[in-house]
């Protein structure tokens, strides 16, 4: 029987969190010991009948009481700031992080890499590269937790959550579900395999489930196929028409809805627009839409994710000339632009993945080349500069 | 204060068991079940709450036994899940929330403020019936198939996916919630309107302040959880889309509404205990509480800030980062009033006359464990640390330190402290000290390992777990058996003392406070004549300070000898409290 005391440290956050743990533990032990020893010391020294001086007993002392109110307050707020800083990092993925799509369902984790490789209850990642997890649940709330990485994020039904990590040490680490989800909650989990970059590219070639069976299409390619088979492309063409707006280059840009609300066209918005188009009508397109609402039984979360990733690439990777945008959208404020995750990820993240000869790399490198030459609206160029 | 204060000893001492009191007033079942006397209702509550505690404790023991093996031995996962739900529901809603207010609060508050009863005696009886009906419904749900959602009833699992008796359990809790609300209203009105002449707000015992703060939380918070749970039932039965995203609902909305009550509910559970500890520390140190007004207002501050920190349960759910920051900062601030109380108790003991009777041992155990419980709460209030620790055994250990090491130990301390008043009998002191010691050791052995296994990453509500965590679970289960013994012994000797315990007398502790001026057990009307209060709370120091100073200067130790003698008198049952004439 082994006797573990601290969990393994396998991500860039592990040391930060453990350092915070040391600070908290020192404070806890110090104050617990202070309180308990003072209490015992006073109680024994001033036990009933002991012959010690009890002269001038005090019953209040504002200065003293303020002192022991202010010291905990100051210490507490110091710890608050120390803990806030890594928190803002954990839930703010860097722009170059490669996306892994995570679906929680009772009682398994389904994961999809950007290059199209899928895994169940297992995740293979190389060291030294940031990965952003986009997490959603298909049924109840789950919690994605890798103790060795010190990261956790709930998987919510109907909403995306994100968290990221960069693994530092090769090994095999627990993956748990932390939000109680029913009968087999305790068995919903698996392993995260952190590999050296060399081993990882070897795994991509020979070990991964996708590579073993057949040629794997990237997520974006699968999305493009869906886009065609679902006949999205019948209405969403390269420019705004009376039937539907174009989807080219909209990702990460503000959209003005019929309700007057301005929303950022992010993953969440696109997902809602597919699930419930009637709630997300654009200004200028009337009260009704001809677009069907794609419910859970028509389109899985994974398929929606594929579509979104494809839409992200539109306008910069499609290769087709991007038509002139209609005036309303290009003049919309571009204040809330965010990096176009899809393209940057793929171009930056290709180094270790270049070897397996994934079709993804071909597409992606092309996309990278085309980004600059695309006839995109000025707003988008601003967006992709950082 | 210069008036020659009437000592609380002004009431004639009891002469014997023949004297009519609330226990021997009538023996019929009808007179018990239809009583509107707050003391009898408190006893009814004591019995029902103890049953719930024993059932919840039984569930805990089954869980701990099962967790000695990483693969499970006795139960299926389904039964395991129902078992931890049963443990949580019974302990939280049917033991911890009503425990101190409905039993000790109900019994002692009117006595402490010199009133004949609570303001609304019939509401008080109704509250016990609501509690009983709610409890029976919840138990029925557990016996006829069980419920497997955990006591938190997170949606959409509870409202859509669970196939267990969610609705019946929730309706039981809903009804029991009204019993809390009625108790809260009753206390607020009683404390405002029924204090004895001369008993100003700042002469009130801190137990009263704590119950006042608790009642405010109950009245403001409980309706919210009642509505929330009603909505869960509505979604289950009528398929309204409130929390289920497939129907256009929002599962996170449930968590906001649930924790808006359930975080303050933590303070409903702990504040009365803090009040008890203030009483015990003052009495057994023979000293006025240090910084009375700081301690009193810290209860109010906890009640106010307690309503502003619910979001710290949701740092990993996806609530906005800035929202989380605000909740985190407020959570650190809410720790301060608790720290004030702890330090003020230290200062109260300082230069006191400490008597290590069983209630004092419980109170000291409380202070130690509550401190650890509070400090480990800071880990979970720390944003980045909570990302790692949320939903692990660290959380389990933390709240058991506060709820079991804190609230329950305080409850037991209070029960020992007022047992002579409630029953007129003394419990066996030696056994009580032994039980306090066993509980303390067993408690630490149970829950300290859970901090470690939680930091290692062991999620809560896991039936099966990785084998490397087993050593910590075995330690925890071993501790739980010790803890069970520590809780079992008082059950036995309390029952024993009802018949065989020594006669307590009116004031076995030599405590001040109006409840000790009347007979034990008190008469139906509490006081033979309405007391008039002219002294401050905790007027323990019976000699003037100048006199004490002179004694010590004349002959070192003489003052203490006088006190020793006084203490011996006290043990013989003669009331001792004389207010200091300042």
Features of the shown structure:
heterodimer, A: alpha+beta, 17% strand, elongated, B: mainly alpha, globular
Number of E strands of chain A = 12
Runs of chain B in which pLDDT lies below 50 for 5 or more consecutive residues are 1-17, 543-582
Q: Outline the low-pLDDT stretches of chain A.
A: 316-386
Element pattern of chain A in H and E: HHEEEEEEEEEEHHHHEEHHHHHH
Distance separating the two termini of chain B: 6 Å
Largest sheet of chain A: 5 strands, mixed
Q: Could you tell me the radius of gyration of chain A in angstroms?
A: 27 Å
N-C termini distance of chain A: 52 Å
Choose one word for the global shape of chain B. globular
- Helix-and-strand structural type of chain B: mainly alpha
Quick synopsis:
Chain A has 386 residues and is of the alpha+beta class.
Fold blueprint:
The complex is a heterodimer of chains A (386) and B (582).
Chain A: H1 12-45, H2 62-90, E1 98-105, E2 108-113, E3 118-120, E4 122-126, E5 130-137, E6 142-146, E7 151-155, E8 161-166, E9 171-177, E10 189-195, H3 197-207, H4 209-213, H5 219-229, H6 232-235, E11 254-256, E12 262-264, H7 267-275, H8 301-313, H9 327-330, H10 341-348, H11 359-373, H12 378-384
Parallel strand pairs in A: 1-5, 4-10
Antiparallel strand pairs in A: 1-2, 2-3, 5-8, 6-7, 6-9, 9-10, 11-12
Helix pairs in contact in A: 1-2, 5-8, 10-11
Chain B: H1 29-33, H2 38-66, H3 77-112, H4 121-143, H5 157-161, H6 166-193, H7 206-238, H8 251-285, H9 292-305, H10 321-349, H11 358-381, H12 383-389, H13 393-423, H14 429-456, H15 470-500, H16 545-554, H17 558-571
């Amino acid at each position: 029987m082994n006797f573990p005391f601290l969990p393994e440290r396998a991500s860039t956050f592990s040391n930060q969190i453990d350092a915070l743990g040391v600070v908290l533990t020192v404070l806890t032990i110090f104050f617990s010991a202070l309180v308990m020893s003072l209490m015992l010391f006073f109680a024994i020294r001033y036990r009933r009948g002991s012959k010690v001086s009890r002269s001038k007993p005090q019953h209040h002392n504002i200065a003293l009481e303020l002192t022991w109110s202010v010291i905990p307050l100051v210490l507490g707020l110091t710890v608050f700031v120390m803990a806030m800083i890594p928190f803002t990092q954990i839930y703010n993925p860097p722009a170059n992080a490669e996306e892994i799509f995570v679906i929680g369902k009772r009682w398994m984790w389904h994961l999809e890499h950007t290059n199209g490789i899928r895994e169940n209850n297992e995740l293979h990642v190389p060291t030294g590269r940031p990965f952003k997890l986009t997490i959603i649940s298909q049924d109840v709330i789950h919690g994605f937790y890798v103790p060795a990485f010190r990261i956790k994020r709930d998987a919510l039904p109907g909403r995306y959550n994100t968290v990221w990590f960069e693994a530092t040490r090769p090994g095999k680490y627990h993956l748990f579900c932390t939000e109680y989800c029913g009968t087999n909650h305790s068995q919903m989990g698996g392993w995260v395999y952190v590999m050296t970059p060399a081993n990882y590219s070897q795994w991509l070639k020979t070990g991964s489930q996708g590579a073993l069976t057949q040629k794997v299409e990237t997520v974006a390619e699968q999305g493009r196929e869906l886009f065609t088979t679902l006949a999205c492309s019948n209405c969403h063409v390269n420019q705004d028409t009376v039937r539907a707006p174009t989807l080219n280059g909209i990702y990460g840009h503000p959209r003005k809805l019929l309700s007057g609300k301005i929303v950022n066209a992010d993953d969440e918005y696109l997902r809602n627009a597919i699930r419930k188009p009637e709630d997300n009508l654009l200004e200028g397109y009337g009260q009704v839409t001809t677009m069907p609402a794609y419910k859970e039984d028509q389109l899985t979360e994974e398929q929606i994710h594929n579509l979104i990733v494809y839409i992200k690439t539109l306008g910069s990777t499609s290769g087709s000339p991007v038509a002139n945008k209609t005036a309303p959208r290009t003049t919309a404020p571009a204040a809330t632009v965010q990096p176009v995750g899809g393209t940057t990820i793929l171009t930056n993240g290709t180094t270790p993945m270049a070897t397996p000869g994934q079709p993804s790399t071909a597409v992606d490198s092309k996309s990278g080349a085309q980004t600059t030459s695309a006839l995109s609206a000025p707003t988008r160029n601003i967006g992709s500069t950082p | 204060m210069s008036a020659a204060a009437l000592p609380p000893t002004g009431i004639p001492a009891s002469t014997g068991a023949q004297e009519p009191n609330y226990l021997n007033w009538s023996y019929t079942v009808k007179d018990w079940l239809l009583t509107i006397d707050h003391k009898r209702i408190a006893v009814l509550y004591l019995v029902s709450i103890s049953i719930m505690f024993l059932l919840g404790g039984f569930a805990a023991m089954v869980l701990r036994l099962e967790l000695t093996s990483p693969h499970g031995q006795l139960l299926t996962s389904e039964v395991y899940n129902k078992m931890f739900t049963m443990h949580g529901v019974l302990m939280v809603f049917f033991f911890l929330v009503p425990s101190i207010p409905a039993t000790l609060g109900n019994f002692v508050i009117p006595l402490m403020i010199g009133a004949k009863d609570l303001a609304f005696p019939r509401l008080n009886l109704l509250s016990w019936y609501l509690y009983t009906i709610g409890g029976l419904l919840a138990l029925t749900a557990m016996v006829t198939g069980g419920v497997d959602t955990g006591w938190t009833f997170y949606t959409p699992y509870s409202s859509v996916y669970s196939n267990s008796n969610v609705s019946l359990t929730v309706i039981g809790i809903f009804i029991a919630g009204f019993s809390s609300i009625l108790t809260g209203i009753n206390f607020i009105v009683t404390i405002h309107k029924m204090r004895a002449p001369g008993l100003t707000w700042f002469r009130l015992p801190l137990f009263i302040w704590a119950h006042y703060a608790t009642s405010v939380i109950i009245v403001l918070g409980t309706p919210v959880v009642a509505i929330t749970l009603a909505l869960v039932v509505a979604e289950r039965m009528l398929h309204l889309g409130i929390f289920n995203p497939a129907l256009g609902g929002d599962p996170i909305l449930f968590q906001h509404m649930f924790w808006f009550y359930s975080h303050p509910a933590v303070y409903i559970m702990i504040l009365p205990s803090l009040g008890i500890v203030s009483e015990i520390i003052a009495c057994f140190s023979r000293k006025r509480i240090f910084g009375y007004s700081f301690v009193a207002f810290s209860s109010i501050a906890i009640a106010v800030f307690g309503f502003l920190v619910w979001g710290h349960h949701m740092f990993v759910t996806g609530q906005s980062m800035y929202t989380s920051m605000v909740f985190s900062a407020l959570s650190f601030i809410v720790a301060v009033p608790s720290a004030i109380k702890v330090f003020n108790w230290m200062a109260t003991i300082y230069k006191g006359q400490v008597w290590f009777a069983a209630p004092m041992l419980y109170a000291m155990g409380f202070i130690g464990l509550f401190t650890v419980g509070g400090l480990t709460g800071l880990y979970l209030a720390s944003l980045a640390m909570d990302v790692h620790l949320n939903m692990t055994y660290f959380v389990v250990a933390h709240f058991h330190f506060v709820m079991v090491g804190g609230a329950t130990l305080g409850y037991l301390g209070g029960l020992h402290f007022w047992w002579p008043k409630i029953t007129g009998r003394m419990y066996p002191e030696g056994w009580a000290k032994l039980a306090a010691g066993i509980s303390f050791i067993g408690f630490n052995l149970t829950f300290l390992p859970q901090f470690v296994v939680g930091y290692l990453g062991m999620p809560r509500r896991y039936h099966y777990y990785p084998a490397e965590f087993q050593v910590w679970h075995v330690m925890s289960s071993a501790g739980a058996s010790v803890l069970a013994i520590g809780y079992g012994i008082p059950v036995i000797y309390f029952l024993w003392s009802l018949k065989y315990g020594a006669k307590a007398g009116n004031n076995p502790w030599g405590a001040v406070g109006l409840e000790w001026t009347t007979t034990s057990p008190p008469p139906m009307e509490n006081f033979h004549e309405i007391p008039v209060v002219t002294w401050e709370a905790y007027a323990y120091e019976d000699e003037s300070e100048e006199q004490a100073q002179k004694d010590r200067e004349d002959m070192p130790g003489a003052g203490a000898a006088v006190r020793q003698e006084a203490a011996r008198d006290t043990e013989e049952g003669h009331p001792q409290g004389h207010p200091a004439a300042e």
